[in-house]
Design a protein that fits this description.
There is one protein chain. With 326 residues, this protein is α/β, with parallel strands linked by helices. Helices cover 48% and strands 13% of the residues. It has helices at residues 13-24, 36-45, 84-91, 116-123, 138-142, 156-166, 179-201, 206-226, 231-234, 237-246, 253-263, 275-289, 295-305, 310-318; strands spanning 5-9, 28-33, 61-64, 74-77, 100-103, 128-133, 147-153, 171-176. The protein has an 8-stranded mixed β-sheet with strand order 3-2-1-4-5-6-7-8, with helices on both faces. Helix 7 packs parallel to helix 10, helix 7 packs across helix 12 and helix 13 packs antiparallel against helix 14.
């Protein structure tokens, strides 16, 4: 399990960043675009419109998704969560049995309530599903700035081998077998980042922002435990670590989206890529099914659906009965 040849399917910001990072780790990398025109553009410019000013490493191969992808030792799917099923189905016929297919999206599929590795298992039955998540912005990773993430799959030896293959001094994957915990941390923190952006955009102050992140993490933790996540995963890079990052920087699409909502401004460019917008109602539905109290997630859903204004949702949270912390 040396994983010398890695394919990255999806040539958005995260795909380009990971292709650069894995190439620097000494692996042979193919960046597979989902359309031919996109591949031609990247080949001619060696730069993604999603990451202007960042040069795609000359050693990165670029091509449309095709049969060649199936010959790679491991495949990263760097597409949005709601498009992951289509991407997995597209590569499924070409996969050798047991090939690790690593989801790099942070979300839960609408309608089915499936986590990303479950989508891979259903769409590409011969694959070994895995998940990569953690506190990392594409611009940082693409430029070689230090970042640490979590890579999880059910088989510990494979998880360790993949982390070794993808990792370098600057890009440090920690391996885990807690697949569900890594998935939940990445999905839930996006919803909470929207809430954090709203708090800042509304000018509610640093104290309110700190309270929001802390109580939001309590919601994430309750949800994770109910769905089988380990506490150490939820308090690690892919849980608390990612929550801290995305609730404190306008580089986060979800935080920026919430910031615009809080200020009463139109959604910023790239808002359709804010995964939390799609995950929020699914997260709340799943929480309700398990009887999990998630008032902050509920407030985000109420705002997004138009059932409550920002001020109304804020008032609802602030007038909840006092209770013991936990």
């Amino acid at each position: 399990m040396t994983f010398q040849h890695i394919a990255v399917v999806g040539a958005g910001a995260w795909g380009v960043a990971l292709a650069n990072a894995i190439t620097r780790a000494g692996r042979a990398v193919l960046l597979a675009c989902r359309d031919g025109a996109g591949a031609d553009l990247l080949l001619s410019r060696r730069e993604s419109p999603r990451l202007p000013g960042l040069r795609i490493d000359e050693r990165v191969g670029i091509a449309p998704v095709g049969a060649a992808v199936g010959r790679y030792d491991a495949i990263l799917l760097t597409v949005p969560s709601q498009e992951l099923r289509a991407a997995a189905c597209a590569i499924a016929p070409e996969l050798a049995r047991g090939t690790p297919v690593i989801a790099c999206a942070k979300g839960i599929e609408r309608g089915t309530h499936r986590f990303m590795t479950e989508v891979i298992a259903e769409s590409a039955p011969g694959a070994l599903p895995a998940i990569l998540s953690g506190p990392s912005f594409a611009a940082d990773v693409g430029r070689g700035l230090p970042a640490a993430v979590t890579l999880a799959t059910r088989d510990e030896a494979t998880a360790a081998a993949l982390a070794h293959a993808l990792g370098s001094a600057a890009f440090r994957p920690y391996h885990s077998t807690d697949v569900r915990g890594v998935e939940i941390g990445g999905a839930a923190k996006n919803v909470l980042a929207i809430a954090a952006g709203i708090v800042t955009g509304r000018g509610l102050g640093a104290s309110a922002a700190a309270a929001l992140v802390t109580r939001g993490f309590a919601e994430l933790f309750r949800f994770g435990r109910a769905y089988g996540a380990r506490p150490e995963t939820l308090t690690g890079l892919s849980g608390l670590g990612d929550l801290i990052l995305t609730c404190s920087s306008a580089q986060s699409r979800n935080y920026s989206f919430g910031l615009a909502l809080g200020r009463g401004n139109p959604a910023p460019a790239g808002a359709k890529l804010a995964e939390g917008v799609f995950t929020a109602p699914v997260l709340l539905e799943m929480a309700t099914e398990q009887g999990i109290d998630m008032p902050i997630a509920g407030a985000v859903v109420a705002i997004l659906s138009g059932r409550a204004s920002v001020d109304e949702a804020t008032e609802t949270l602030l007038t909840r009965p006092f209770r013991a912390e936990g």
